[in-house]
Amino acid sequence: MADAAPNQPPKAPVVAEAHEVDTYHPPQKMLEKHPSKPHISGIEEYQQLYKESITEPNKFWGRLARELLTWSKDFQTVHSGTLEGGDNAWFLEGELNASYNCVDRHAFKDPNKVAIIYEADEPNEGRTVTYGELLREVSKTAYVLKQMGVRKGDTVAIYLPMIPEALVAFLACSRIGAVHSVVFAGFSADSLRDRVIDAQSKVVITTDEGKRGGKLIGTKKIVDDALKQCPDVSHVLVYKRTGADVPWTKGRDYWWHEEVDKWPSYIAPEPVNSEDPLFLLYTSGSTGKPKGVLHTTAGYLLGAAATGKYVFDIHDGDRYFCGGDVGWITGHTYVVYAPLLLGVSTVVFEGTPAYPNFSRYWDIIDKHKVTQFYVAPTALRLLKRAGNQHVRNEMKHLRVLGSVGEPIAAEVWKWYFEIVGKEEAQIIDTYWQTETGSNVITPLAGVTPTKPGSASLPFFGIEPAIIDPVSGEEIHGNDVEGVLAFKQAWPSMTRTVWGAHKRYMDTYFNVYKGYYFTGDGAGRDHEGFYWIRGRVDDVVNVSGHRLSTAEIEAALIEHSAVAESAVVGVADELTGQAVNAFVAIKEGNDATDALRKEFVLQVRKSIGPFAAPKAVFIVPDLPKTRSGKIMRRILRKILAGEEDQLGDTSTLSDPSVVDKIIAVVHDAR
Ligand code: WTA
């Protein structure tokens, strides 16, 4: 089954009520404490540049690519291909190297400039890494990978927590033209195994253990479990993080510190073609199998650098702190690539916002004089709920407060602005996806007026379209609702799904011909501002983590007692959405609490703890049409307490199951 079958419009998004909202302008105080002035003088200049980026994209992007990236060979063709053809390519004939752009060019200028501010799980255990040191570390690690047989175009699996070596690993891969495939270190052994096999990685990089929120994570053990079924993995490089005693497979496992010691501190970067792959990152779609989203070198890097510069208004000397994990796209683009491409210091935070207490983020911001902070609303909801007494910090260098990954409610937005930012920093609600590579609908800090809850206006080169999901036609004009698509290609868009180009086409380009389909519902208000409503496909967003209901269902069915299951996302005050599972069990099993617990464990084991259902309902049967299609809509309505609005249930093969399910849900509450 394709993610969204072509010609079959997705479900209509929820239409929000029209309401009056305040507009906030970039705060005067933010401009006063600015080291110089924002890169763009104001909304008029944005509009002018935006217009150029849409009407003359080759001129616009050609200029930016030469300004923001360093090329070993200049490109001739800025762009080729079409959205319909799914064959977009940028900066052809050009050659460059990602690690050179992130490290060397800054190290040559000022080797003592801080590249990485590592804030360890325990406060005061961190350290800094300068650009000069980073160049040495990256070079040595690149040698190690080469020695392990990694060649240009090969994929390397990275299963690392938030430590500086994660960034070193990314850059060591790109230095030799290898493709990193990072797996979030919260994924289970089964998930890691699937990704290692799908990407055909022969080398895996990990730690002995990880440390997060005062707890230890057995990363090496998880890798060992995963690799039992990955006979093609020849080498595992293990960074010693805690010094724990870990099992060792001789001839396969190597200590990072011992290996890097053997090599010189400089290796020349390998120039690659603009369109050579930079990385793979697996993400969830509507089907059970995660997709390996592929990004290529030049276009992706340009998206990261351009949004870093204009969206976050990064200036030389800034200290940038993105709280996202390197295991997700936010960490890729905004912990690693954007700040390093622009040659500023990036904070790598290993811990959680609640450890050792709820002031941790704010302490880090004060301690390192952070200028831009970027985090998901789920963390803000947690901290807001914990109470304002934890936000005593001054944070007087903050100019930009970013939000990412899920809609931010107006009251959380205002709390972020008033309590965290003291009305001296601008809130930017940035909308984007793993597939878009970098921010696509977002305010530009210091420039764009904002409205709480709106991601505001398109970034350069992004031409949004609101489409009527029923007719499939674009809806022009303002004050409209529909699904969100883009009608022009942009440099950092994903180029393919690893090993599944048809899936790529069906998911993004065959749904509405001539458009890239985002999978999100959106509105455009009377002033042309965009309001993201959330996914219209079977993707749920739990604490900013993107999960596929089909993937969780596939995990549940692996349990021997499960006959069938249906997973839906429900609104949750803290996590945005929560996973709820309905399970029909096989005969001979009883609906006990113990069994429900086993189902939760099954999901933790197959995917990872972050995907665990918050509630499991064991039901006699699922609501299905006569052709066997599960009506998840009915389940969502029941959970929302809207039993009186189930609509027409006569098309169900057995309408009586509805009352039985309602009874189960009521009993559980
Ligand atoms: C959602 C995360 C509302 C959206 C960068 C999208 C958002 C999915 C926002 C991508 C935002 C991301 N407001 N919703 N500012 N940003 N989303 O691939 O549903 O993990 O399609 O990338 O997150 O999730 P992904």
TrEMBL record:
InterPro entries per record: Ac_CoA_lig (IPR011904), ACAS_N (IPR032387), AMP-bd_C (IPR025110), AMP-bd_C_sf (IPR045851), AMP-binding_CS (IPR020845), AMP-dep_synth/lig_dom (IPR000873), ANL_N_sf (IPR042099)
Q: Which GO terms describe its cellular component?
A: cytosol
What does it catalyze? acetate + ATP + CoA = acetyl-CoA + AMP + diphosphate
- Matching SUPFAM superfamilies: Acetyl-CoA synthetase-like
GO terms for biological process, alphabetical: acetyl-CoA biosynthetic process from acetate
Q: Name one Pfam family in it.
A: AMP-binding_C
Q: Which residues form the Acetyl-coenzyme A synthetase N-terminal domain?
A: 46-102
**GO terms, molecular function:** acetate-CoA ligase activity; AMP binding; ATP binding
User: Ranges for the AMP-dependent synthetase/ligase domain?
Assistant: 104-489
What region holds the AMP-binding enzyme C-terminal domain? 551-629
Query: What domain of life is recorded for the organism?
Result: Eukaryota
Keywords (A to Z) from UniProt: ATP-binding, Ligase, Nucleotide-binding
rRNA-binding: present as a keyword of the record? Answer: no
E.C. number(s) listed in UniProt: 6.2.1.1
| Ligase is among the record's keywords | yes
Protein family (similarity comment): Belongs to the ATP-dependent AMP-binding enzyme family.
PANTHER family this protein is in?
Answer: ACETYL-COENZYME A SYNTHETASE, ACETYL-COENZYME A SYNTHETASE 1
The name of this protein is Acetyl-coenzyme A synthetase
